Amino acid sequence: MEQRKILLNGKIERSPNGFYKTEVFINMKVSKSACSSSNPCSGYGSDVSGCLGSSNLKSIGIGNNVLAKEAADAFIKMTDDMPSNLKSKISMGGAYRPLNIQCNIFDWDKYESTGKRVKKGTSSTPAAYPGTSNHGWGRAIDISPSDVQNWIRENGTKYGWCWGEVKSEPWHFTFCGPGSNRDKNCDSFCKGKMTIDTSSDKKETSTDKEETSTDKKTTKEPKKKINPFLAPLDAIIAFAKGDTKGLEDTESLLELSNNTNEEEIKNISEEVVRIKDIMKKIL
Predict the structure, then answer these.
(1) pLDDT tens digit string along 213-259?
(2) What are the residue ranges of helices labelled H in the chain?
(3) Whole-model pTM?
(4) Backbone phi, then psi, for 172, in 5-degree steps?
(5) Does residue 237 contact residue 282 with C-beta atoms inside 8 Å?
(6) Best exposed site among 29, 41, 212, 281 by fewest CB in 10 Å?
């Protein structure tokens, strides 16, 4: 049975080895008329760039910016590992971008007259055709300042974040790590390999289980110190006479008495009562 890679624009790609790959890559261009509606996603559903539901997105902890879950986890791990003096300077220019915003920034007139895809109000700033942006898949960020950009260019690849999708934009980075809707062009501009596990879904290890079970075990309460009257009889007699010399080593006597079993303690207690009565009569 043939396995097919389906593109919603109607094209089917054959892999180099002659077999079709099973992979749904939805990259549907949204028409100008659809973009002009108050809710351009209504005619396309949640599987189109810019129409992701909130359940597919995750906060990156900076402002209100969100990304696809895998991209968000990788971004959080990357910025956690970033030098603190750089992390504190991060300024986000964009992350996930809803379709209606992509529709509004795209210069339709320029596109229809020249075929160029640029941002409205600019002469040459690139803008993805609505429905095709990696921002709309929650897999792209615009970040500054320049020293933060340089650090990500040097270190971001191991976290899955790569520069080069739009070479005229030093602030634009694309997540080429795992997850849905990975840009097929990542293989051409992302030269390094992702080497750091950034997933937030960690499986419980056997060590974790052992520690958990250990925590659940009831801790034995320390033995209560026994009253000095239950120490050996010579110390009791000395105590009764008011001779403190016989109790100079009280701590060692207590330690010794702590090792005494309950039956012995009962017998000693009875003996103490008896001796105390005798001492009262003598004294």
Answers:
(1) 444 444 555 544 445 444 555 555 555 555 555 444 444 444 444 55
(2) 32-35, 69-81, 84-87, 99-105, 108-114, 146-155, 186-189, 206-216, 233-241, 250-258, 262-282
(3) 0.63
(4) -95, 125
(5) no
(6) 281
